Amino acid sequence: MDTIDAATVPEDTLRAIIWTCFGTAFVLVALRTAVRARTSLPTVDDYCIFFALTCLLSLCVLETIQLPSLYYIAGVLAGTAPIVGIIEETERYLLFQFPIVILYWSTLWSVKAAFLTLYWKIFRDLPVYRRVWYLLALFCLLAYGGCLVTLTVSCGGDVKNFFGFATCAKPEHVWASNFSVYFSTTIDVFTDLCIMAMPLRLIYNVKVTLRQKVGLVAVFGLGFVMIAFAIIRAKQVLVEKMFVNLTLLMIWSTLAASISVIVGTLPALKVLITVHSRNSANRSNQHSAGGSKLTGKQSISKSVRMGSISKEKKSMQGSLDAMESQEEILVQHDVVSFSLFLSKPFGLVDIG
């Protein structure tokens, strides 16, 4: 990367990108909160999303304060700004960079915590999945701590070194910094994959329509979006030459953190699509029926056949009596519990 490429986006444009990202995340979190408030008080996953949004807000504020120093450094690297004052402006930039990285990881891990607390509602009655949940939750906690530790020790083990001019420029510091990026990105991607994989077996076995099953896979597969942005951000840091494109680094960091919060809100917002689809289907049935009671009964019968959890549970119970394998019995019990959870108001799919 050439030094002249150290800044590629105008300052006002970058500022607009930062606050557009936060504004979008804020609107969706507010909408999620309004939707959830219709049926219950805030739960643990809501508080995790609130904390993630708070971290994102703090991140955007610090980035905005950091912008003048960033563009001064970029100007010096490009040869368009005087070198006088480079030490002061660099130290001012570094003063905010360390907490910005902490806030970035805190935002991502708060969203992971939100998904895990959502999973707890699904798996709390399933012993095998509950044990896996405990292991994954503990691993995510340790992984978050590992990200903070590798960042802290990447500059000689003294946090004060992060705020000094050229105090982290030795080869061993560069190696440790790159290791921190590799470690944190790898562990971030791995935990996202684990979180997405947990409900796949239940989704495969749950008795819903193909369209509903695809919707479930889409909801639980949203982590791939976060993975993509995390990898792109890491590529902005791990450059072969000395100078990082500071503006692109800030853009992708803000986008990755904002997308993470947005993805965390989407499972709860699926109810809006469900309600809209249900209302549209009801209106369509009413028009096609032309007031016919028979058509109405047929529609109700179809709805019951497709989504009646009580009938599904009885059917599954009957099949349980005929099963010889204990493993099959456990699978069917898991599917029943999963179906019951999904059928609740503001669940992830509309069964019935």
TrEMBL record:
Record keyword Cell division present = no
Coiled coil (residue ranges): none
Span of domain Rhodopsin: 32-273
Q: Does the keyword Protein transport apply?
A: no
Q: Where is the composition biased (Polar residues)?
A: 281-302
InterPro entries per UniProt: Rhodopsin_dom_fungi (IPR049326), SAT4-like (IPR052337)
Protein's cellular compartments: Membrane
Report TM segments.
Answer: 16-35, 47-74, 94-120, 132-153, 181-202, 214-234, 246-269
| Annotated stretches, region: Disordered | 281-311
Keywords, ordered alphabetically: Membrane, Transmembrane, Transmembrane helix
Q: Which PANTHER family match?
A: PTH11-LIKE INTEGRAL MEMBRANE PROTEIN (AFU_ORTHOLOGUE AFUA_5G11245), SATRATOXIN BIOSYNTHESIS SC1 CLUSTER PROTEIN 4
Its family?
Belongs to the SAT4 family.
* Protein name in UniProt: Rhodopsin domain-containing protein
